[in-house]
Design goal:
Blueprint lengths: L5 H14 L6 H11 L4 H5 L9 H15 L3 E2 L7 E2 L1 H9 L6 H11 L12 H4 L5 H25 L3 H14 L4 E4 L10 E4 L7 E7 L7 H14 L3 E6 L5 H11 L4 E5 L1 H11 L24
Parallel strand pairs: 5-6, 6-7
Antiparallel strand pairs: 1-2, 3-4, 4-5
Length: 300
């Protein structure tokens, strides 16, 4: 099964701690939770976007924090998690799953808030399916998708020459070498060349199609023929649209031989431009910090 949501962890955590003879540290608690849900090795190793901890560890930690905010759990910094008398009472009196609405009511009764992203008192409800870091990841994906649409709209307004220069600039930014746009020189259907070494002994040839219609198999075969005419073994075909399934299969077949053709469609083109800072500027950045456990270690 997939990693349970934060809300799905509330009751299992309370039940695990209620049956424990003493407090349970964060990592062992995560293992017990994982066992309770019969998580696979892949699910246990699934990491949060930052890659610092597993997703199940992150969600268990946040669930514990909210349970602590409501008074159902107690734990000191770096200490084991323990269920409180209030937690035992709530567990005995509350049948079924513990929802985010239940948690919000408990917070309001205790006069506390979940101090996560400094939002309103219903911050737990807004995190029903994700931790704050996961919410940031979702927002980032939404912003990147919107930016990709805007980039493609802007690219379609470029002249063919300017588009060819754009793809050359992108490949340069990606570290493939020094490039030049040659499309208007009538160079055998080649729109750009990347020299991968200072002497130009290793070259990557580019074809760039600023199209709204799908690129089909004939265009891939024509590009392969252009590579043959140059005695070249590497080519990148970039389009603002998409490739047909036949075009993709043809590229795979060709790449299984003596040449290699890499296809980049409009979505990947926009994503690469964002990642390598081509045609975009940074307007704001956010830092995500965590506790420095070494600083608070007792032997410091």
């Amino acid at each position: 099964m997939s990693v349970p949501t934060q809300a799905e962890l509330y009751r299992p955590i309370l039940e695990i701690l209620a049956s424990a003879s003493e407090g349970v540290a964060p990592k062992p608690l995560t293992e017990l939770v994982s066992d309770r849900f019969n998580l696979s090795d892949a699910d246990r190793q699934d990491m949060v976007p930052s890659g610092t901890v597993s997703r199940i560890y992150d969600r268990t930690s946040w669930a514990c924090k909210y349970l602590k905010d409501t008074g159902l759990l107690y734990y000191p910094p770096r200490g084991p998690r323990e269920i409180t008398p209030q937690g035992r009472e709530f567990l005995d009196s509350h049948a079924g799953a513990i929802t985010n609405a239940d948690m919000s009511r408990l917070q309001q009764a205790n006069g506390t808030k979940a101090d996560t992203t400094d939002t309103s008192s219903d911050s737990v409800e807004s995190s029903a399916e994700a931790t704050p870091e996961e919410l940031m990841e979702q927002s980032d994906r939404q912003l990147r998708a919107k930016l990709a649409d805007e980039l493609l709209e802007s690219i379609m307004k470029l002249t063919p020459d300017r588009f060819e220069q754009l793809v050359v600039n992108l490949l340069e930014k990606m570290g493939y070498g020094k490039g030049e746009a040659v499309g208007r020189s009538g160079d055998g259907g080649i729109d750009g060349i990347i020299n991968q070494d200072p002497l130009g002994l290793e070259k990557v040839y580019i074809q760039a199609k600023r199209w709204s219609s799908q690129v089909g198999e004939p265009e891939i075969r024509n590009f392969s023929g252009s590579l043959d005419a140059k005695g070249a073994g590497k080519g990148v075909f970039i389009t603002t649209s998409t490739f047909s399934s036949n075009a993709e299969q043809t590229a795979r077949n060709i790449s299984a031989g003596s040449k290699f053709i890499r296809l980049i469609d409009g979505r990947e083109l926009a994503a690469l431009m964002v990642r390598h800072g081509v045609g975009v500027v940074t307007v704001s950045t956010y830092e995500v910090k965590k506790i420095d456990e070494n600083y608070f270690a007792e032997d410091v």
